[in-house]
Amino acid sequence: MKQLSLPGLEFQLKKRWAYPYKWFRKQNNCWDSSTNFIYETEDWEILQAQILATSKKLKIDDNELFNYAINRWYNFWSAIGVEQIFTEIEGIEPAIDFRNRLVDFTLFGIDFDHKTSVFPKYLRNDLVRARSREGHLIEWLYKNQSDQNRLHLSNRLYIVVYDSNGEHWKLKAELGLLKREIQKYAARFSPAQLHSFTFAEDTKTLSDIIWVAR
User: Fold this and answer.
1) Is the dihedral of CA 165, 171, 174, 175 positive or negative?
2) Which pTM does this prediction carry?
3) Residue 86 class from Cβ within 10 Å (0-12 exposed, 13-18 middle, 19+ buried)?
4) Backbone region of residue 62 per phi and psi (left: phi > 0; alpha: psi in -120 to 50; beta: other values)
5) What are residue 207's DSSP bridge partners?
């Protein structure tokens, strides 16, 4: 993956804010396959042309495909931006095999996948309580993650985004803010702070949360 201009990518991602965050259907492999063109461009205008062409070709409802595709695009390119933020930090190495979906980078000798997650609804916007029970939240995030191709129980760093106005999803586009919080986390990182879980027999999973709130 080429090096991106993070300010430029942030500008593109924020164009998605003009539309409500709706999926209309549960994410699945079939619809993922139909919208894999989202990997081809970070440009919002080009994306819209790709969506229109695909909906006509596959005879899929324009509105449903539009919402499904822009959500996948938004989450994917935000994740790519976040991965670049991590790998630009001294001491963090990108995965040797970029196709390995279980490892995005090595953080001071420990392999991790990363995932940016919005603050869960079940916590009723209680940020203080959530931060005081990180282990419980991490377990919930693993158990409630997407299924099919997105399911795994390997080491993962969660970036949990919280906005006091309730529009948590918009913070995925705030790459400048995400960068500051990730850099602060890396500067004070110690393996001793990681939470350890045994989700599968004889397999230890390490995880932690980087909080990004405003």
Assistant:
1) positive
2) 0.93
3) buried
4) alpha
5) 156, 195
